[in-house]
Amino acid sequence: MVKAIQVWRDGGEWWEVWNGADGRIVEIAATREEATEYGATVFVETPEPRFLVRDGSGRGWCAERFYTSFDAEERDYREESYDSDGNEEETQTFGEWLDSSDAGDEFDNSDSMFTVIRIN
Q: How many secondary structure helices (H) and strands (E) does the chain include?
């Protein structure tokens, strides 16, 4: 049995096609139809991740956004961070955080003064 599992990464929906016999990923497909071409017969859908965006400047607004509503410019944002010697540290981009976050995780954008919390 070959199954396809819906995943959310790189700003969009993808399908990981798994070989049931050896438990390895056969291919990563861009669409459900493409997953079928790789032999998938069972499809496991997952809900699109949702996030709560809260203002940190005192205006008091918040909004719910879906994973795919964040554009490439937003995903490329990187918070500046420095170590104790004053050297710049490499930090993950907002998009990398979106891709690896779990429910309850929080991303603080101190430059634009807002916080993003993963809901599901």
A: 3, 10
| Encoded amino acid at 118, one letter | R
CA distances from 113 to 83, 100, 102, 108 (A): 22, 22, 22, 8
What predicted TM-score, i.e. pTM, was given to this entire model? 0.82
Residue with tokens 């879906």: 66
Separation of alpha carbons 106 and 34, rounded Å: 34
User: Which residues are paired to 52 by β-bridges?
Assistant: 64, 117
- Residue found under tokens 């070959």: 2
pLDDT in tens, 66-115: 999 999 999 999 887 777 787 777 788 999 999 999 999 999 988 888 99
Token reading at 29: 């497909």
